[in-house]
Amino acid sequence: MGFYTEEARKLPVEGKYDVIVAGSGPAGACAAITAGRLGASVLLIEWNNSVGGMSTSGLMSHWTGSVTSPVYTEILTRCGLLREGEDAGKLVPWIDPENLKSVWLEMLREAGVTVLLCTFVCGAVMDGNRVVGVITESKSGRRVFLSEITVDGTGDGDVAAFSGAEYYKGRKQDGKMQPCTLMFKVAGVDVDRAVLPGSFESFYLTEKGELQSLAKEHIPAPAGHLLVYRSTLDGIVTCNMTNCTDIDGTRAEDLTRAELVCRSQMPAIVKYLRDYVPGFEHCFIISAGSMMGVRETRHFAGEQTLNENDILTARQFDDWVVRGALFNFDVHNLSGSGLDPTGVQKEWKQPEGYTIPYGCLIPKNTEGLLLSGRNISGTHLAHSNFRVMPICAATGAAAGAAAALAVKHGLGLREVNIRELQALL
Fold first, then answer.
1. What 3 state SS string does 336-361 have?
2. Confidence of residue 347 (pLDDT cuts 50, 70, 90)
3. End-to-end Cα spacing for the chain
4. Which helix (H) or strand (E) holds 252?
């Protein structure tokens, strides 16, 4: 198609901050909150019209996995998610998205964070190999914001990619990425009778047949599995059942196709639930996520790279910035429905939490930039574990603390004292 040369123009610099955080999902929000609490001036930039990413706009049902992180525990506590009865006082991971939006905003406000919504980060401002700010696009036009340190919490690692940081996509051998899902909620469920399988390896036999097999038979491919979770509201269940394969979440065309495919599957999914799943006979859709659930895109080369053996052996790094990370290898089928052959959910046998070292947050050959969330440096299989929201929140908090320390002491990110950083986490 050729090229069009846009006329060069000067961009207004709208402000300078100690720390800029791109993306307000659990990683970005926790990075901004932590840096703000430590005294840094912080700007949080988000393309959506609300904060929280997949935890809110993505309509996630619950926080999967666990981690030893004060900020993560605080989020659950402030959401009022406490068990009753015998387990009274224990925290539960279920999400009320609208309540969580308010909790995120309250924590950001208390930390003194400046929040800018409806704004895309579309470029990195570079001084040699150092990121010194970001270029944004919005209804306000094309603008620049400068920073001492930038934290990339975009999930896809957009700022890191704009900066020229080294990465590959998906599985290293073939570039294939995990499928996308659009979460949705159904009401009218008899929760007392409802069958609620929480993993691909959960099977349930009814008089009409086994539910996972029936899903594959009656829901159009590449969907075809049953994953449903209770919610914080009576009679409402969250469905993790739409599925679109061969999607590159860094391309607008692919994200558009994922939206069309996933929405086209929803009527068949509801019919299957009504016809075959006990308790769902009268269910109906009440809402769907306003944000596509993208599981995997770019993997960046960091000063250190977490691999699957580190997780399987519950490795304890001396230079940890995340502790007690615990989850499974949640690899959704890269070519169809259900669990990928490399994935392990219900049958996961590693009961011990692992650590994530500081070097996984630092992209190679790039200064002034920290990774956080699912874009930290790790292999495809390790990523399937640390991509979940509690662990992303913890890597975000680590990035925010490291950024604040670097600014406070006038240090490069690689010069931050690891013991001082750990003391804050």
1. CCCECCCCECCCCCCCCCEEEEHHHH
2. confident
3. 51
4. helix 252-276
Q: Any bridge partners for residue 143, and if so which?
A: 136
Q: Which of 329, 152, 337, 309 is nearest to 226 (CA)?
A: 337
Q: What pTM does this model have?
A: 0.96
User: DSSP secondary structure string, 187-251?
Assistant: E---TTT-----STT---EETTEEHHHHHHHHS-TT-----EEE-SSTT-EEE----B-S--TT-
Give the contacts of 409 (CB within 8 A, at least 6 positions apart).
Answer: 416
Which of 303, 413, 398, 316 shows the shortest CA–CA distance to 359?
303
Residue 81 CA to chain centroid, in angstroms?
20
Q: What are phi and psi of 217, to 5 degrees?
A: -80, -35
120 torsion bin: left (phi>0), alpha (psi -120 to 50), beta (else): beta
Query: What architecture (CATH level 2) is domain 14-172+297-424?
Result: 3-Layer(bba) Sandwich (3.50)
**DSSP class per residue in 280-328:** -TT-EEEEE-SS-B----EEE-BSS-B-HHHHHTT---TTEEEEEEE--
Averaged pLDDT for residues 79-92: 62
Using only C-alpha atoms, the chain has a radius of gyration, in whole angstroms, of 21
Which residues contact residue 131 at a Cβ distance below 8 angstroms, ignoring those fewer than 6 apart? Answer: 124, 125, 147, 150, 159, 163, 366, 367, 368, 369
Q: Region 39-56: what's the mean pLDDT? A: 98
CA-wise closest residue to 145 among 18, 7, 50, 26: 18
With cut-offs at 50, 70 and 90, classify the pLDDT of residue 83: low
Burial (CB count within 10 angstroms: exposed 0-12, middle 13-18, buried 19+), residue 158:
buried
pLDDT digits (tens, 9 = 90+) for 209-253: 999 999 999 999 999 999 999 998 999 999 999 999 999 999 999
Q: Is the pLDDT of residue 339 over 50?
A: yes
What pLDDT score was predicted for residue 88?
Answer: 47
Least confident range of 42-56, 74-88, 149-163: 74-88
Domain ranges for the chain, please list them: 14-172+297-424, 184-288
For residue 369, what are the contacts with CB-CB under 8 A and spacing of at least 6? 124, 131, 149, 150, 151, 152, 159, 160, 163, 165, 363, 413
